[in-house]
Amino acid sequence: QVQLVESGGGLVQAGGSLRLSCAASGSIFSINDMGWYRQAPGKQRELVALITSGGSPNYADSVRGRFTISRDNAKNTVYLQMNNLKPEDTAVYYCNADVSITWYRKNDYWGQGTQVTVSS
Predict the structure, then answer these.
(1) Cβ of 53: how many Cβ atoms within 10 Å?
(2) Helix (H) or strand (E) segment spanning residue 48
């Protein structure tokens, strides 16, 4: 089994910064794409940022230029640096990882979520 543990959420004023971390552990052969999603109250979960195993990032238009996704493959960890936060960034942020548990089998895993609240 694979576990994803997130940390770094909290309450911040508009214009402030937060850094989220997500560490994967367990029966890991390799980790493919890793990403961050968020879900605000009454809304669907949406992709925030994604990073490939090679380090290529992709961002939602709403966060491009403000958020930076990165990963440390040696630590099986993905990060999300969030700058110039806005009240509309308020949501529960979830880590996601596409994990190969053997060379021929892979599964999709989610973290438990971490709350980010941006006050105006």
Answers:
(1) 14
(2) strand 46-51
The per-residue pLDDT for range 62-97, each reduced to its tens digit, is 999 999 999 999 999 999 999 999 999 999 999 999
- The full 3-state SS of the chain, as one line of letters, equals CEEEEEECCEEEECCCCEEEEEEEEECCCEEEEEEEEEECCCCCCEEEEEECCCCCEEECCCCECCEEEEEEHHHCEEEEEECCCCHHHCEEEEEEEEEECCCCCEEEEECCCEEEEEEC
For residue 108, the cross-strand partners are: 98
Map tokens 């238009």 to a residue.
61
DSSP letter, residue 43: S
d(CA 79, CA 23): 9
Q: Report residue 87: phi and psi, to 5°.
A: -55, -35
